[in-house]
């Protein structure tokens, strides 16, 4: 498995230059490292910020599982979507509100065809809310199918 978390991960993360705002590091509650977040008040309604995970060395014709922690805290905070590079048009995962402020786990299966997925994009879309944030943390890529709970 490959640790792509932000504090000590070995993966290559890039801010998208063509979006409306950047994701920023935020300190974890327990103080051990940080996660990436977009506060609710950044930008205008429907503005988006994209954070790209560049993937190299994925084998063709294999499957992988991307596991990550996410949080949508606050009223009308917006949407969090995940896109795979070879399926640009539609998100492979989307969440538009949290039941509470807690961190949850997201999982996405990545099936490699002959052409491999070379990046995964985490996109946050600004909602109407003025408080809260969208956060992503503990991103891990493992080979094989996603484990059941």
Secondary structure elements and pairings:
Elements: E1 2-3, E2 12-15, E3 24-27, E4 34-39, E5 48-54, E6 63-73, E7 78-84, E8 93-95, E9 104-111, E10 119-126, E11 133-143
Brief account:
It comes from Smithornis capensis. It contains no helices and eleven strands.
Report on this model:
The radius of gyration is 15 Å and the shape is globular. The two termini are 18 Å apart. The model has no long low-confidence stretch (mean pLDDT 89). It has 149 residues and is an all-beta fold. The strands form two sheets. Strands 1, 3, 4, 6, 9 and 11 form a six-stranded antiparallel sheet that branches. Strand 7 (78-84) and strand 8 (93-95) form a beta hairpin. The protein has one domain (2-143): Jelly Rolls, CATH 2.60.120.200. The chain has no helices and eleven strands. Helices cover 0% and strands 48% of the residues.
């Amino acid at each position: 498995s490959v640790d792509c978390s932000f504090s000590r991960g070995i993966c290559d993360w890039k801010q998208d230059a063509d979006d409306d705002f950047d994701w920023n590091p935020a300190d974890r509650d327990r103080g051990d490292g940080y996660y990436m977040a977009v506060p609710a008040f950044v930008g205008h309604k429907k503005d988006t910020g994209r954070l790209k995970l560049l993937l190299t060395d994925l084998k063709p014709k294999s499957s992988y599982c991307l596991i990550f922690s996410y949080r949508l805290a606050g009223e009308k905070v917006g949407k969090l979507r995940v896109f795979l590079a070879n399926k640009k048009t539609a998100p492979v995962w989307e969440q538009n509100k949290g039941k509470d402020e807690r961190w949850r786990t997201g999982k996405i299966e990545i099936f490699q065809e002959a052409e491999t997925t070379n990046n995964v994009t985490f996109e946050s879309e600004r909602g109407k809310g003025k408080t809260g944030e969208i956060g992503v943390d503990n991103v891990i890529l493992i080979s094989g199918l996603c484990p059941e709970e």
